[in-house]
Amino acid sequence: MSRLFIYAALFSASLVAAFLYNGKAVGSLASGAVISLIIPLLDNIVANRLNLRHLWYSVRYGNQDVRISAAYLFRIKVDGKYLLIKGRRFSQLQPVGGVYKVSESGKQFLVSIGAQDDSLIPIDTTSSDDLRVRLKGSTIPGFYSWFNSRAGREDSPWREFHEELVGSGILPAEVFPFTFQDYVRRDVAKIRFSDHAQSWEILIADIYELLPTADQEIHLRRLIETPHAEVVWVSADSIRRRGILSGGTTIPVAAHSQKLL
Q1: What was the pLDDT predicted at 19?
Q2: How far, in Å, CA of 135 to CA of 121, rounded?
Q3: CA-wise closest residue to 67 among 222, 199, 155
Q4: Which of 13, 48, 223, 257 has the greatest number of CB atoms lying within 10 Å of its CB?
Q5: Nearest to residue 95, comparing CAs of 68, 71, 79, 69?
Q6: Residue 23 has what pLDDT?
Q7: CA dihedral 217, 219, 222, 227 (to 10 degrees)
Q8: What's the pTM value of the predicted model, to 2 decimals?
Q9: Residue 154: its pLDDT value, please?
Q10: What is the pLDDT of residue 25?
Q11: How far is the C-alpha of 84 from the C-alpha of 256, rounded, in Å?
Q12: Closest CA to 130 of 192, 73, 68
């Protein structure tokens, strides 16, 4: 962001100089500077569009409560089929993954910006330390800067993978003592008013793609061939259509499953 502000300041100064000294040597130099700064300025605007969006939110929703929920999702794909698992809180099929946890230092930071625990999801032994908070809109840029630093919060998708697939016995622990995964992207939804939360809301989701070893892929294929009550494998088209399968059968695919695509 600092580089963007520098380019913007130089561009503005050069533009003013070009008008004030039009027809003079200084004006010609300023005009050249304006032209040369257009591309890096636009490039930095594009690169910082998310930060600029959050800066706007901090002004537009400065004194209003905003709910933020930050999670990670696992894309597990074999032969064009995506693995979805039954939700533990809601009766739906969804990607493996869950809300990030925060450490003690993360809690201290959240307290320092006035963030409050979110009560939309009941706080219990499972949801304790989840990164679901309500904060003032004015603190959104600071929150996102902290979140993006990865300090004071969970920084691996392994916990939920283990809890949902290995610890539950769906996949063998001896074959899945670890996972390799690629970081695909971060999906930050635009702010919206949530009827369920009765407040403004921003949802953040990091998408990871499983890179199974040869042995792990064998067991994933076995899971496809041996139906399991907690797991389904569906096509991208079925995810887009929210669970409508060929033949008219419908299964309850969660809306956020589309983030895998």
Answers
A1: 55
A2: 16
A3: 199
A4: 257
A5: 71
A6: 54
A7: -110
A8: 0.81
A9: 96
A10: 54
A11: 11
A12: 68
Q: Kindly report the CATH number that applies to the domain delimited by 62-260.
A: 3.90.79
Q: Token pair for residue 83?
A: 């693995």
Strands 77-78 and 231-234: unpaired
Domain residue limits, the chain: 2-47, 62-260
* DSSP string covering the chain: -HHHHHHHHHHHHHHHHHHHTTTSHHHHHHHHHHHHHHHHHHHHHHHTHHHHHHHHHHHHTTTSEEEEEEEEEEE-EETTEEEEEE-SSSSSEE-EEEEPBB-HHHHHHHHHTT-EE--SSPPSTTTTTBSEEEEEGGGHHHHHHHHHHTTTB---SHHHHIIIIITTTSS-TTT-SS--EEEEEEEEPPPEEETTTTEEEEEEEEEEEE---HHHHHHHHHHHHS-BTTEEEE-HHHHHTTTBPTTS-B--B-GGGGGG-
For residue range 11-53, list pLDDT tens digits in order: 455 445 445 556 555 445 444 544 554 555 345 555 567 788 9
Confidence at residue 197, expressed as pLDDT on a 0 to 100 scale? 86
CA atoms within 13 A on the CB side of 8: 8
Amino acid at 218: I
How do beta strands 192-194 and 199-210 pair? antiparallel
Give residue 71's pLDDT: 97
Of 62, 90, 51, whose CA–CA distance to 200 is shortest? 62
Nearest to 102 by CA among 149, 154, 146: 154
Please provide residue 130's backbone torsions phi and psi, each rounded to the nearest 5 degrees. -70, 145
Give the phi and the psi of residue 150 in degrees, each rounded to 5: 70, 5
Instruction: Collect the ranges in the chain with pLDDT lower than 70.
Output: 1-48, 122-127, 246-248
- Does residue 181 contact residue 194 with C-beta atoms inside 8 Å? no
Q: Residues 203, 190: contact at Cβ < 8 Å?
A: no
